[in-house]
Design a protein that fits this description.
With 195 residues, the protein is mainly alpha-helical. Helix content is 46%, strand content 10%.
Length: 195
């Protein structure tokens, strides 16, 4: 999977609901449309899109962001966030992840480099399965009770080609462990019960 890959439209997925599917379809259509203006010789626009993975880490918000809640859904037993996490995994094979600080730095990097244009996949070099996230929490936070069904899941491999941004000189600072740890920190700071 790399920047040339697009989410297929109008497919049905086992973990999908009408809202998730509409969100993904509208996001894909909007990105394709805006990129078409950047490729038009007459438009005179330089367009950059960053297709970000699931964003984790701490936040400046007074509440736990939805994307962080998706990372933690196997600890909180939140069915809605777990369905969203599984939908993302089903859609992409594995879950591309990125820390919020890397997202911010990637945006600044693209703004400060006028030679950059086009579409970039913005995700740390690792992608994980929902079962790998659950296994991490079970191993490092045994008191938080991960349900056994969360430890089962697809074991397929996925090649994530987010090297285009790296080739331009961008450096990701956060790995999987750091992202997951900062998600726990974010929820605990905001007083989320059970964590």
């Amino acid at each position: 999977m790399d920047e040339t890959c697009w989410t297929p439209l109008h497919l049905s997925f086992a973990c999908s609901n009408v809202h998730l599917k509409a969100y993904v379809d509208s996001k894909t259509l909007a990105e394709r449309e805006i990129l078409s203006y950047g490729s038009s010789k007459n438009a005179g626009l330089e367009i950059v899109t960053l297709a970000c993975g699931l964003v984790g880490g701490d936040a400046l918000l007074s509440f736990t962001p939805l994307s962080v809640a998706m990372f933690l859904c196997q600890l909180t037993s939140s069915a809605i966030e777990y369905q969203s996490l599984r939908f993302l995994e089903e859609l992409l094979g594995k879950i591309p992840i990125i820390h919020i600080d890397d997202v911010c730095d990637a945006h600044i990097f693209c703004i400060e480099n006028p030679s950059i244009n086009g579409r970039f996949l913005c995700a740390s070099s690792s992608s994980v399965s929902s079962a790998e996230i659950a296994s991490y929490y079970q191993q490092h936070y045994p008191k938080l009770q991960v349900k056994p069904e969360y430890l089962d899941g697809p074991t397929r491999e996925m090649g994530l080609g987010s090297t285009k941004l790296i080739e331009k000189g961008f450096v990701y600072k956060y790995d999987t462990k750091m992202i997951l740890e900062d998600c726990i920190k974010c929820a605990r700071t905001r007083g989320d019960t059970g964590l």
